Amino acid sequence: MRFGLSLEPQAWPRAGGDAMLRAARDAERIGLDYVLMSNHVLENPHGAGHDPVVLLAAIAGATTHIGIATSVLVLPYYRPVVLANQLATLDVMSAGRLVVAVGTGWNPQEFDALGVPIRLRGQRTDECLEIMKALWSGTTGDLDDRFAGLREAIIGVPPHRPGGPPIWVGGHSDAAIRRALRFGDGWHGSGINHEDARFFRRRIEELADGTGRDPATIEISTVGFLVPQGIPAVRPVPGRLLGGTDATTEAIVEDLRQLADAGVTMCSLWMPIDGRLVGEALEWLASEVLPHVEPTSWSGPRHRV
Hints:
Helix 1 packs parallel to helix 9 and helix 2 runs parallel beside helix 3. The chain has an 8-stranded parallel barrel, surrounded by 6 helices. Helix 3 links the parallel strand 3 and strand 4 (98-103). The longest helix has 17 residues, at 121-137. By secondary structure, it is α/β, with parallel strands linked by helices. 37% of the residues lie in helices and 15% in strands. It is built from 9 helices and 8 strands.
């Protein structure tokens, strides 16, 4: 199992830029695989509202090899051609370290503020993915009549990797799973346990039937909500805590082991703590948790392949 650090939930100091970059460098130093940022444009109770593309660009410049990922980018908020160029640029500037986890969004206030009908969020997400992938792969000539104006379009900045960065599709609905099978490299859940992971693997296999897509090519990742030992939470947690409420380190390790055994290949750790304590939390993670989850595959700091 690979691990990432979400930079959303921490309560950052007023001038939090340096602290966030330091946290990203610490995550890289201890051997995490990704730094992640979610997508909010208005104040919300769950954490920071920094623009994920801008923040991840800064992190790419402050680190050398750790992956960067959105978790999740709300595609209905964006114009797909502009976003495709932004993400391709970030993929180039990070030398191919970008993963784009996407979702349809949930916050009616944000949709209203942006003038986007929430009832069209699924349609807009599919259209955005279709256009971005066509631009990244140079296949805009294959777009149907809805996008006739893009048939000869060539993106301004080709992505670092042919076809563009990997796509994870977030959401627990059948529609999200079908979207992952159509457009994605992975399915991205939130707060799931090992039984949930097995259920979603079965559902991916069932919904793949007749699509021509091999369900084994769809990775399963999840956001794992974690309160480190000895460090208090300062924000509400929007889901199941790893190891349960008031969990011991041993319970957290066992929970992660069970997720790995169930086929989860990536866990994004969402820690609702004071941002000034992230370094301390990461040291605890590196010494007390990760070496005991999958000792054969996690043995300390490493470079991504």
